[in-house]
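FORM 7B: Structural annotation worksheet

SECTION A. Query
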Amino acid sequence: MPRAKRGFKARRRRNRLLKWASGFRGKRSSSHAVANEAVQHAWLHMYRSRKQRKRDFRALWIQRINAAARLHGISYSKLIGKLNTAAIQLNRKMLADIAISDPVAFKTIVGA
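SECTION B. Predicted structure
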């Protein structure tokens, strides 16, 4: 009696995993066992990096706002404090964009 080889479903599952691993180097893209581990690690890094990207962008916006604010003689923390007391609802992304693209408008915001 011939051995059972699990049929097309197992092959389809292996091929799906190899498709996810396409573009990896060496056996990581061609061998199922190695590709499985590589794909799992890649997904782990992707999940973590989606959160990291948000932190990185926020830090970048804060640096840009701080640099622009110091040109007008005020620190970042003092600027944010003044904006909160003045009830100006601008998020850091928009503030950083204004600071770069429209310095005149940013100066009026700092003066508010």
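SECTION C. Observations
The radius of gyration is 26 Å. DSSP finds five helices and no strands in the chain.

SECTION D. Sign-off
Analyst initials: ____
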